[in-house]
Amino acid sequence: MEQAVLKKLRYSGLGERLTDPVIVHLMANALSNPDLLSLAAGFTDNAALPIDLVRQVVGEVAELPGGSECLQYGMNSGRPGLREAVIGLLSAYQGEQSIELDQDHVLISNGSQQSLYIATQVLCDPGDIVLVEKPSYFVYLEVLKGLGVRPVSIPTLADGRIDLDGLRTLIDRLSRNGDAGRIKALYMVTYHANPSSRCMPEDDKRNLGKLLQSLDFALPVIEDAAYRDLFFEKPFSARSILSLPEYADLPCLYAGTFTKPFATGMKVGYCCCPDKQLLGKMLNVKGQQDFGTANFTQAIIEKVINDGRYENFLREIRPHYGHKMQILHNALKEEGLAEMGWKWDVPAGGLLLWAEAPEGFDTRMGSPFYHACIDDGVLYVPGDYCFAEGSPFNYVRLSFGVLDEERLKEAAKRFVLSVRLACQNA
Ligand SMILES: Cc1ncc(COP(=O)(O)O)c(C=O)c1O
After folding, report:
1. Could you tell me where the DSSP H helices lie in 214-345?
2. Could you give the CA distance from residue 135 to residue 71 in angstroms, rounded to a whole number?
3. Per the structure, how many domains does the chain have?
4. Any ligand 1 atom below 6 A from CB of 110
5. pLDDT tens across 66-95, in order?
6. pTM for the full model?
């Protein structure tokens, strides 16, 4: 027995590399202080989740002839009807009517997160490189870290758009270092992004496609469109990589989800891939992980899409989130955050507001400002987590998804108060 205690448990590379996910720290902070108002969690609003609709549809699905089939295992790739419905939703976007996909180009996953994870697993080995935006979705950066893959930021222009000349220079530099063969994918969040809330203009996307076409290797592009359906007033006009001719010869993956715009806890997402061989590789992994996403939740989503209730629901919640964004934006303004040199864009969709503090202002976890916010009862995501290189330190990600109107105003007040105190103490 004593000897067993002395023996060191040998973990895999993955087990060794993985440390506590950032999100776990943030949740622990929130849970240990129930008075804390969280602008950190990227959750949707409980008050706006479709509980009545789902209750009704569960009954309807159960009543269908052969309804119990939904409680049986389904297909590894997902329900054919839902995969068909996904193509219908995509091709309803302007300019995407002629999308050339059939249901065999679609995989239904446990949230889009699973698609992102599996895609990275089939494309990358430890030591490989994935090009990411600056900033990028921090949970994906952690996935890369866990898999031993190095995220490298694509340079950006002053207005936050990708810098194509800078990207070319970066790829040339990596090639000179002998790392070109290590670059295995480019990942981008193109609609109301997490965390920046930006959308990638179609011209930028096309020019990026042209640049990638000119490379002497085929670089897979992962387009993450998690927030595409969650615009406030009108859809962002850019077409997806699935429709743009510049991407026709590139390996492309397009990840989407029903967790943000519909029922978060059902955890149903999807991935579309014109290259059936690449999708087949992903399906092989999925087949080993869980051999299919929950059939029952898929059936519910399939039904609401097909009878139009999904679209009706989206029409209701889009202004709801637009209103919440406005509440947070106005409250930050009214409390005087901009006067202290902070800047942020007003999002046109999504759940997040990305704010930049003056240079030198440190928002990192563990910084005096971070602790001051906790003491004042408000939580945010430190922006450095969203940068592949771990800096700069002067950004925060604020979510307006979870809190109700009054608590959003109060959270903004507490946040700005902490900023004011930090400025006074500086
Ligand atoms: C940009 C982005 N992509 C993907 C996901 C994964 O979402 P889900 O697995 O719930 O579909 C999230 C979740 O927050 C996200 O923000």
Report:
1. 276-289, 295-306, 309-334
2. 41
3. 2
4. no
5. 889 999 999 999 999 999 999 999 999 999
6. 0.96
